Amino acid sequence: MAAPNSKAPPLPGARWLVLASTPVLLFLVLPSLVIVPMALTAGQLIQFPPVGLSIHSYVDYLSDPAWVASTVLSFKIAALAVAAGSVAGGTAAVALHGRRFRGRGALTAVILLPIVIPVVLLALGDYLLLAPLQLVGSWPAIGLADAMLVTPYVFLSAQTSLAVGLDPALTRSAQSLGAGAASLLRHVYWPAIRPGVLAGALIGFAVSFDEVVIAMFLQGPDTVTLPVRMYTSIQYELSPKIAASASLFLGLAILILAAQRFARR
Q1: pLDDT of residue 153
Q2: Do the Cβ atoms of 171 and 188 come closer than 8 Å?
Q3: How far apart are alpha carbons 207 and 81 in whole angstroms?
Q4: What's the structural domain count of the chain?
Q5: pLDDT for the residue numbered 1
Q6: Could you give the CA distance from residue 142 to residue 217 in angstroms, rounded to a whole number?
Q7: Is pTM beyond 0.70 here?
Q8: Chain mean position to CA 237
Q9: Is a pLDDT exceeding 70 seen at residue 232?
Q10: Which 8-state DSSP code applies to residue 43?
Q11: DSSP H helical segments within 2-103, as ranges?
């Protein structure tokens, strides 16, 4: 029997596996890293390699009211989407946990449907639903539409947390002691699903902040999100402000990865 502290034997061919995966990793990472030097160019157009080094693109980005307003709007929409999606996904995970009934699989498939179907179909459906209600062009409508994208991630993460961190005997014990639904949710289910909800919410925030298709269908003159402004601006101008705002996404992704690691701990 191997000692507890003994190291696992290396996998056969592990060195070749690392060599084969390195080009794939570079292919995935390098396009994102190129954004940073492009944002630091001293020129007036996006180009690589950059012409000198300067932070004027960040100054121009932060001093442009339209770009700043779009950035703030994207944060507001993502926050609303995460709040609504976390409630929907978390409660759905709790409601379905440990229950077996006819149609459970179909109900789970409906919850996960926004991940599977193309976003353009969701956007078109949202537009046809909200247009008669005269809600197109309002940022809460975009946020609630993005909540459909957040809900499946929270649902899956919360389900995993419940499967790993909740002892069924604990629920039965609490019920036998007279705990009601509110007490069960607060003192039994919430401590178990909290890591999953936080992890799913972080992923959902990135998805909502980066979403462009739904925002383009539901936008108005005063509700242009940052991804939509970047997309439309790159068609008519090649200002380094686009790269400066894109580096914001990169920084946001790094923060989310760090927050996910902290949430798991």
Answers
A1: 92
A2: yes
A3: 10
A4: 1
A5: 44
A6: 9
A7: yes
A8: 28
A9: yes
A10: S
A11: 14-39, 56-63, 65-96
